[in-house]
Amino acid sequence: MQEERIRNPENAAISLVLFGGGGHGKTLIELVQAAGKYQVAGIIDDGIPAGSAVLGVPVWGGAGLLPDLFARGYRLAVNGVGAINHYEVRLRVFEALAQAGFVCPAVVHPSAWIEASAVLAEGVQVLANSYVSSEAHVGFGTVINAGVVVSHDCMLGQVVNLSPGAMLAGGVSVEDYAQIGMAATINLNIRIGRCTRIGNGATVKADVPPNTVVRAGTIWPILSV
Questions:
Q1: Of 27, 47, 51, 162, which alpha carbon lies 20 to 30 A from 83's?
Q2: Would you list the domain boundaries of the chain?
Q3: How confident is the prediction for the chain on average, in pLDDT?
Q4: How many CB atoms lie within 10 A of CB 132?
Q5: Which fold has domain 2-100?
Q6: Residue 56 in 3-state DSSP?
Q7: What are phi and psi of 88, to 5 degrees?
Q8: Do domains 2-100 and 106-219 have the same CATH topology?
Q9: How confident is the model at residue 171, as a pLDDT?
Q10: How many CB atoms lie within 10 A of CB 115?
Q11: Per-residue pLDDT tens over the stretch 111-126
């Protein structure tokens, strides 16, 4: 049986279960290895054959194994499902992990810089070369991708996704489940509404209502001629 190939954790305090072995999962494997605080023990993924490996990390099987892994002593997990433009998928992974009893610690690449006064909630992921400035607050499960700037006093909600190169000026508020595209720029003290999507390269100069799509390469607000 596949379960027999799962090793019990030698140290549950540092052993992570990775849910999702796709592109985002690969990035997290190498982030965790570089940071050195945790170890990725194995991967849960319903779409990858059990017994295979991703970057040398064994794939144990699908989500049905989560209760067994918890019973074996695993307590920590990391959500490797990026699900860009589909926050519901990522949220369901967090819900499944929580239901099984897992906690998702924040993970930070060693090349990122987090100011001492900034606050990262559980499940936050900060990728390489990003910066989180003074008294910024980053909500549960949010992804700060590579090369992102989150300036002072920003407030990010839960399961927000900041794509590579996004730039947030001071005092920006990004509500739950919003997604900011690559190289997008958000001006000072702007509010980005819940479930809003800001396209790649967009510039935002005024508040954006919830459930709005700002098209890539455009300037918000759109001015009438």
A1: 51
A2: 2-100, 106-219
A3: 95
A4: 28
A5: Rossmann fold (3.40.50)
A6: coil
A7: -60, -35
A8: no
A9: 98
A10: 14
A11: 999 999 999 999 999 9
151 three-class SS: coil
Report yes or no: 5 and 51 within 8 Å, Cβ to Cβ: yes
Pairing of strands 119-120, 57-61: unpaired
Note whether 214 and 202 are within 8 A (CB).
yes
CA dist 6 and 48 (Å) reads: 16
Residue among 12, 36, 40 at smallest CA distance from 28: 40
CATH code linked to domain 106-219: 2.160.10.10
Q: Which residues contact 206 (CB under 8 A, 6 or more apart)?
A: 190, 220, 221
Q: How far apart are CA 137 and CA 120, in angstroms?
A: 6
Q: What are phi and psi of 83, to 5 degrees?
A: 50, 50
Residue with tokens 């400035």: 133
Per-residue pLDDT at 1 exceeds 80: no
- Asked whether the beta carbons of 118 and 132 are under 8 A apart, the reply is yes
Give the Cβ contact number of residue 92 at 10 Å. Answer: 14
CA-to-CA distance for 20 and 6, rounded, in angstroms? 17
Q: What is the pTM of this model?
A: 0.94
